[in-house]
Each structure stands twice: as structure tokens, then as C-alpha cells.
Amino acid sequence: MENQNQTINQITELNPTKFYQELLKFSCLPDEIIIEILLRLPVKSILKFRCVSKYWLSLLSSSHFVKAQIKFSIKDCKNVNFRLVVVASASGLVGKMCSIYSIVCEKSSFVNVAKIDYPLKPPFGSAKFLGSCNGLICLTAMSFKLMLWNPCTGNYKEFQDSFVKSAVSRYIRYGFGYDAINDDYKVVKIFSFPKDEGKYENMVKIYSLRSNSWKMSESFSGGYINAQSGVILNEALHWEVSHCRGSGAHSEIMTFDLATETYGVMELPSCGDGNVSWTLNVLGGRLVACCNFYLDKTDMWVMKEYGVEKSWTKLVSLSSPSGRMGYISPLFVSENGDEVLVKLGTDISLYDKRNASYKSLEIHASGCRLQVQAVTYIESLASPHIGDK
């Protein structure tokens, strides 16, 4: 097994041309070994090798291989295919991408930034990222449409947003994730209508990529859902919800299981009293809750054992930079927790816990600082066309 792994690693380090020449020498290898080799290739190379033969096209396009490639990319904790995409908008849209691994893990002094073919063109300057899952990014634009986009393959799918007609004022929240039981990607849209005493009535609609249709789901009553987009973990979406209770306020996490389409509740960590707000994220396969103290600091907590509220552990306390604008939103954290990649206003910065310093990364477009959208994703073969005929 050790010699087999060494052979796989040596072959995958070759450039694509030499890789194919070398792989031909091992044509007698069983498909299982060839697949293990191919899973370690960059997605761009896999797409090229689909042109080698009809057999390879069938193999590399099969749902089995695509699912295996996504699973391998997620499981690989040092995956160099983990990416950050940033879209800055002012007079137009400029999309850029870079490797998070090179920024945080390799501590590269030079950030290799590449332009990407962003599917939305002007005038859709107010497009927003609603989340990413398995290499697909969900976003919305002012055209009253939603989009699922794979930045690596360039494939995307537009579909009509869903609306609820009502004269009553309302606000809208989204969520996006993968339902493995039904092999389906879903978009959840919540319409919240304010009621008396700080309570809200929430109407829920769900879009299924497989059926390419919207349907009504069970409604619920609750507090104010703060984040525009929920975060996905363990095939459930998570939002932070605030409740008014008497003279005080209480915050908790509302969950939505994408397979069973049922709701749940989890407690946030105890962060003390004061003027605070919460933001949620998923880093390293764990749920992260950030307690933002206004103009002071941000405490980052990690749930070490999912669903076990006693496992909340403070990971790092990020001091606020001077002239702070908005709340700190973590994008990535190093394995030892010493470096945290964050979005703060229009800046993407690397925070060093050891000396409490920020290093701004110039990866957005110069002169396009009115709106900056940032989201992390893995390079994968995931297709936004599940169920299309």
C-alpha cells in the first residue's frame, strides 16, 4: 500500500502531458487505482483528460466519479484547491480568485491572483453571494433571478427567484446547501413578516435543483433572523436568530435540515453582557460563531463536537483595527489557529494572533471598493445542471 501511494503521488506531481504519457505505462492498472490517481489532479486537468477517449469521457463524467472527487476534496485537509473568490463592483464587476492555502498555510509573500469569468455582467453590480457548497456558489442579482455557478468549470444555471405577494412589509433571508439523501441541491428562501412584540411570522419556500421548481414548506414563528444567508454544515442550514424577551434580548441558532425539511435550535456560547452581535460561519468542517463587540473586538468560538453545546470553545479573540467599519467575517483559519483570513468592510486581511496584527491583501480590483463580495469554495466537478434534460 505504501509503494502504491508513492507511485500515485509521483505521477500526480507531473505536468498534464507527462502525466498522461506516464499513465499509459500503467494501462494495466485496475480502474480503482486509476481513479485514485485522477482524484488527486486539479479539476482543470481532469476536464482536459475527458478528451483522451470516449471511455475516459464516460469515466470522468460519471456521477460516481464526480461524487468521489467532491468527497476527496472536502476530506483533504491540506487541499490546494481550496479557493477564495472576490467580486468587487463600482462601475462594473471584476472577479478575482486566489488560493487560500498559499496565503495562510504556505505563508506565501506573493499572492497569485487570477481573473475569473464572472457570469454576471453589468449592470448587475449589486449581486450577492448567498453561500457555497461542494464547489457551487449560489448568488442573486437585481434581475429577480438566482444562479448556481461553478467558478472552476465555468458552468452555471439561472432560475427564476420565488416571490410572495403581500402588501405587508417583509424582509428576506436565503440558504443554500446539499441534500445527500435525495442527491439534490436546495435553495431555501424565508419571507419574514413582523408581528407584535418583536415576533415574526416566517413563510418558507424551497427550490430543488433536481426538480427545477419551488414549493412551499412549513412556516414558523420566531425572532429576527439576522444574517441574510444561512451557513451549511452536516446538510443543515444555520441562522442566528434574536428574540426579545421582556426587557432583554436572547440569541440562538436556528437550524433547518435539508433532507427532512425540519427545524431545530442550538444555543450560542456564553459571551457575556454588552452591545454584541453574532455572525456564523463554517471553518474546517466545524461551526464557528463570532461574538462581535462593537468597536472593540471579535471573539471566535468553535463547536468542537457538532450539536453538543458544551463543546463551544473560544478559538481566538481578534482585536479591532483602527477605523473599523462593520463586523469581522472570518473566511479561513489555519490549523493551529494563529492565522485567520477575514473580510472587514471592503478589505480582505490576514490576522496574526501572535502579534494581533492585520495584513491587508490587495486581491480586489483597484478602484472598485464600493461593494466587495467574498466567498470560499473548493474546486470541484459539481454540476449546476442536476435533473436537466
What would you say about this model in short?
It contains seven helices and 26 strands. Strands 8, 9, 10, 11 and 12 form a five-stranded antiparallel beta sheet that branches.
Q: Mean pLDDT, rounded to whole units?
A: 81
Total strands: the figure is: 26
Structural class, from helix and strand content? alpha+beta
Which spans have pLDDT < 50 for at least 5 consecutive residues? Answer: 365-369
Query: Which descriptor suits the 3D outline?
Result: globular
User: For the terminal residues, how far apart are their CA atoms?
Assistant: 42 Å
Bin the helical content. 10-25%
Cα Rg? 22 Å
Q: What fraction of residues sit in β-strands?
A: 35-45%
Please summarize the sheet with the most strands.
5 strands, antiparallel
What is the tally of helical segments? 7
Describe the protein in words.
The chain contains 7 helices and 26 strands. Helix content is 16%, strand content 43%. With 389 residues, the protein is α+β, with helices and mostly antiparallel strands. Helix 1 packs across helix 3. Strands 8, 9, 10, 11 and 12 form a 5-stranded antiparallel beta sheet that branches.
